[in-house]
Amino acid sequence: MDENSKGREHWATRAGFVLAAAGSAIGLGNIWRFPYMTGEHGGAAFIVIYLIAILLLGYPLIVNEIILGRASQRDPVGAFRALAPNSPWWLVGGLAVFTGFIILSYYAVVAGWSLAYVYKVVIATQSPGIDHASVFTHHITSVWEPIAWQALFMALTVGIIAAGVVKGIQRWVTILMPILFVLLIILIIRSVTLPGAGAGLAYYLKPDFSEVTGRTLLGAISQAFFSLSLGMGALITYGSYLNSKDEIPGNAAYVVGLDTLVALLAGLALFPAIFALGFEPGAGPGLVFITLPAVFAQMPLGGIFGVLFFFLLGIAALTSAISLLEVVTAWLIDEKGWRRRNAAIFMGLLIFIVGLPATLGYSVFKDFSFPALGTDLLDTYDWFANSILLPLGGILSAIFAGYIWGIKNAVHEANKGGAFFRLGRGWAFLIRYIVPVLIVIIMAVGIYDSFFK
User: Fold this and answer.
1) Under 8 Å CB-to-CB from 81, ≥6 apart: which residues?
2) What is the pLDDT of residue 3?
3) CA pair distance 308, 181, nearest whole angstrom
4) What is the extent of the structural domain holding 447?
5) What pLDDT digit, counting tens, does each position of 23-77 carry?
6) What is the number of domains present in the chain?
7) Assigned domain for 8 exists
8) On the CB side of 355, how many CA atoms lie within 13 Å of its CA?
9) In the beta sheet, which residues pair with residue 3?
10) pTM of the entire structure?
11) Could you give phi then psi for residue 63, rounded to 5 degrees?
């Protein structure tokens, strides 16, 4: 175990960091959210905008967060406090910790659904004529069943975080990430070989920009933030476990590349099958839990492929959840002096409790609707996190690196460790000018579209 002078645990290998950071990025945002967002926004046109957002916003910001973490060797709050002492900029770190806390609270709800569907999809595919929408509705409108699955998912996450950076996070992502890729490839082969899959490939790969609206733009930007774990403190925290010899630009490129690849592969695994079997691609969040079980029910060996898919979804959710819990756990360890095990258990329990309203938003609190947005509790959590908190965190961290801490300091930190390619004026220009301006514009368009149209 590599430790600094203060006894801070470091990643044992470069691959450990890349897989952990990629695991943080690869989650429900790729396997659940990316396909349904693509379906809601017209297919390939959304993907083109998403890829542009990844290049212009995602990569610069992921590098920036890793830089802040490694330079400070602290959690998000401690990072801003160390790099801008005696200033209120530590509040930006506090915002990141709060954002990660909120996201995991409702993230665990959907992750619990995915665990439940590992066996529910078998029942659904073996029951001819079953109403798949009713199965899903019955699950989420129950009181205790979704709570039990949410609790199980949080317990798994807490167990991994309590074990530590190397023995917990690094060990498990090294096991889970290869399994994730193998399962995706198996599902893609099955999907693209179905009769009629060509229509789904055309929808997924041929852009129609007439479908693009302000909501499409906001959706693509928020998807980039959500998918890459930006603005929630995860990459600052993971970056703090790097030492000065570790390369940042190249490692960040691997993380972005792996995350984007998994999102694109997830769509490639789903849309050909959806079109081949005559289902609607714009099914929204229910695409995975209602449409896909119906798709699997009509496929040869659909029960097996259904189990593989929801097992894949559970793995993706877990690799992201451990990064989110690590953020708040590291805050308690660094800022409050807690022991890791106690911090992980306490925060895991608190996040579980805060997530209960989202879990019960379809049963006990089913009559709740957020004014103006008209959304249920889980969607309200999601809207505020992805439309407000994540972009706000991204803007403030970019301004901090570009103007407060100083772009020269940021570039110098990034280029330590014998980087294969070095950051320079291009990255500096993006982080100082392009990133903040684009995020402000997209946030304004999205908020106007959500409240006034």
Assistant:
1) 74, 89, 90, 93
2) 39
3) 12
4) 14-452
5) 888 877 787 778 878 887 878 888 998 999 899 889 999 999 999 999 999 999 9
6) 1
7) no
8) 29
9) 9
10) 0.88
11) -60, -45
